[in-house]
TrEMBL record:
Protein name: GNAT family N-acetyltransferase
InterPro entries found in the cross-reference section: Acyl_CoA_acyltransferase, BioF2-like_GNAT_dom, PG_Glycine_Bridge_Synth
Ranges of residues in domain BioF2-like acetyltransferase: 117-239
EC number annotated for this UniProt entry: 2.3.1.-
Length: 277
């Protein structure tokens, strides 16, 4: 994996729809005067603040002081590397797979790895019927039930499913669910969330028949074409994990670039005099 210069797009976790979904779930995010969204959590009973997926504004301390929050621990997790003076690093930068949608379909096809391109062509020849539309805010939607089961079986944690439902409820137009069927059977699905000029892959599943016909390759290329036509410039395919090399290959062979995040940092007034890298 090779780092590439980051592509610019507003972050999903700084989108107003994300804040509205949190409120629907009972959370109380703080929107600062400059527009940055601060999350408030408790860890071991200690109140903390979190600024997710954006570089801190120059006057962040002043904005927090005006809200009476300047002395609370603040966790920073910028989307891209940026200077963070007087902050203690908690976790090194991770990598995400980012697709550039700002090119024509032929150039997107040219970027595909040959094996990935062959799988996509095989899926195009299969008897797959595609459809897409907004994600229903239904707690019993099969995609959400399948995701919940897989999280339990594989022991990973993504967004709480209640938060996904809340996002679909408050901003249905910012969701897009792509479905592949063979006959009447759903064989694969991919859900994308839209935010400004960017979009993010959220969750998806492929059943054995879908994997046999490489349905996710076809769904992803179809989603890229639709998102680009709607004015989106980038598609975030999510983190690249060392524990999932097969998934990493799928993402990067689709033409995505590996881009470094800014890591995770702690800024807190007792550490203010400590010199941190």
């Amino acid at each position: 994996m090779v780092d590439a210069p980051p592509l610019s797009a507003p972050a999903l976790m700084q989108d107003p729809a994300f804040a509205a979904a949190l409120r629907l779930c009972g959370a109380a995010p703080l929107i600062l005067p400059g527009g940055a969204m601060i999350l408030r959590r408790r860890i071991l009973g200690l109140p903390i603040l979190m600024l997710p997926r954006m570089a801190p504004p120059r006057d962040l301390n002043e904005q927090l002081a005006a809200a009476g929050l300047a002395r609370l621990p603040l966790i920073l997790s910028p989307a891209h590397p940026c200077p963070l003076p007087r902050a203690l690093r908690l976790r090194a930068a991770q990598q995400i797979a980012l697709l550039d949608l700002g090119t024509d379909p032929e150039r997107r096809i040219a970027r595909l790895h040959p094996k990935w391109r062959n799988q996509w062509r095989k899926a195009r020849r299969a008897e797959l019927r595609l459809s897409h539309g907004p994600m229903p805010a239904d707690p019993h939607h099969p995609l959400l039930l399948t995701e919940a089961l897989q999280q339990r079986q594989r022991g990973y944690a993504g967004w709480p499913l209640a938060l996904t439902r809340a996002f679909a409820a408050v901003a249905p137009a910012q969701t897009r669910l792509f479905t592949a069927r063979r006959g009447q059977r759903v064989v694969a699905q991919m859900l994308f969330l839209r935010h400004g000029t960017g979009a993010s892959y959220h969750i998806g599943h492929s059943f054995p028949e879908g994997r046999r016909f490489h349905a996710h390759n076809l769904l992803l290329m179809t989603a890229c074409d639709w998102l680009a036509a709607e004015g989106h410039e980038t598609l975030d395919l999510g983190l690249l994990h060392s524990a999932t090399p097969g998934l990493n290959r799928f993402k990067l062979r689709s033409g995505a670039r590996a881009c470094a995040t800014g890591g995770t940092w702690l800024r807190w007034h007792p550490l203010a005099r400590r010199r941190c890298p």
